[in-house]
Amino acid sequence: MVLILMGPPGCGKGTQGKRLEERYSIPQLAMGDMLREAVRNETPVGKRAKSYMDRGALGPDDLIIEVMRERMGREDCAKGFILDGFPRTLAQAEALGGLLGDLNKKITAVINLDVADEEVVKRLAGRRSCKSCGAAYHVAFSPPKINGVCDKCGKELIQRSDDNENTVRQRLSVYREQTAPLISFYDRMGLLKNVQGTGTIDEIFRSVCSLIDKETGR
Fold first, then answer.
1. What's the confidence (pLDDT) of residue 58?
2. 71 given a catalytic annotation
3. pLDDT (tens digit, 9 = 90+) per residue, 89-126?
4. Catalytic residue among 50, 71, 123, 171
5. Among residues 50, 71, 123, 127, which one is catalytic?
6. Which pTM does this prediction carry?
7. Which of these is catalytic: 13, 50, 128, 193?
8. What is the 3-state secondary structure (H, E, C) of 121-141?
9. What's the DSSP call for residue 179?
10. For domain 2-115+164-216, which CATH number applies: 1.10.8.60, 3.40.50.300, 2.60.40.10, 1.20.1050.10?
11. Cα dihedral: 204, 206, 185, 181 (round 10)
12. Per-residue pLDDT, 112
């Protein structure tokens, strides 16, 4: 099974991907997480990606494809995987077809989580994380007990550089320009499944699973 999660930044791809990973026992391959890990570890890929991420731009296709090719070839992906944040351009989508062909796999479904821009800004600009343990918070939806302090370890909470409002709006602009055309691309292939990305996490998850189970005959 190969699932692609699409939608603007902050639409809930990461949250739903983690739950789908547990339900279907296949790994979630989150491009954003992989790139941030590379930046933290100061790998050659991370150093190259950092300048793009800091200004809300997509990394070049060859960089992204290189990261994904390596990850998809690992043993835990043998039974399939969930793609989160890849592909983001038509060139990446075309490259994905070749990567999957090499692995003798094909796309099961493309789930598009639809969320309005202003809701995305509200969600992302309010996110905070602990610089020490990585615990996640939101100033409106899940605030810490003490403003700016992690409940778990007492260390400082920070806002990711790509979560400030100006960068979020830039990320949305990039998404609309470069990634949204993939919706039409996969729709023409008969793979696209649209899901409203608002509501509770459980409601969205049930909708997504219903579509996947219908496709796979579960």
1. 65
2. no
3. 899 999 999 999 999 999 999 999 999 999 999 999 99
4. 171
5. 127
6. 0.79
7. 13
8. HHHHHCEEEECCCCCEEECCC
9. I
10. 3.40.50.300
11. 0
12. 95
Catalytic residue among 40, 47, 131, 160: 160
Distance CA 55, CA 58 (A): 9
Tens-digit pLDDT profile for residues 141-200: 899 999 999 999 999 999 988 888 998 999 899 888 888 889 999 999 999 999 999 889
Active site residue 19: no
Q: Which of 95, 111, 89 is nearest to 7 (CA)?
A: 111
- Paired tokens of 82: 């969930």
Question: First and final CA of the chain: distance in angstroms?
Answer: 12
Q: How far is CA 59 from CA 23, 89, 114, 185, in A?
A: 31, 10, 23, 21
Please tell me which residue in 50, 71, 88, 123 is annotated as part of the active site: 88
Active site residue 171: yes
Q: Is the pLDDT of residue 137 over 90?
A: yes
Domain boundaries, the chain: 2-115+164-216
